[in-house]
Write a structure and sequence with these properties.
mainly alpha; about 110 residues; 4 helices
Length: about 110
């Protein structure tokens, strides 16, 4: 009866990775990520977004100045593309601001 069933060493055939929970002497990757968060706070994230928005708004002006000064590296199509990108960025920022204000209003309506 035992000759019919093959004997496999399943535990020996398992390949361990860093995502395991410390099996096989490997340092688990998930736990170290959870213990050492490198996420900036809300104020830092928002100030970075505002700085990026400011840079996006100034880029078309800078490219237009380069085109008007006769720079061969910048084409009018680059200026138009930068203007469209700036417009999309403003639309996203406006939508994001509205969502943040809505969330703040909902939080303020919560009764403690």
């Amino acid at each position: 009866m035992s000759s019919f069933y093959p004997q496999y060493d399943l535990a020996g055939r398992i390949q361990h990775t860093k995502l395991d929970t410390g099996i096989g002497g490997l340092q688990p990757a998930r736990i170290t990520r959870m213990e050492d968060p490198s996420v900036p706070d809300f104020k830092t994230v928002f100030s970075g977004l505002v700085e990026d928005l400011n840079a996006e708004m100034n880029e078309p002006d800078n490219l237009l100045k380069d085109v008007m000064s006769g720079s061969k590296n910048v084409d009018i199509h680059d200026v138009m593309t930068a203007m469209a990108k700036s417009e999309i960025t403003i639309n996203v920022a406006t939508q994001l601001t509205g969502k943040v204000i809505q969330a703040y209003d909902k939080i303020m309506q919560i009764q403690v």
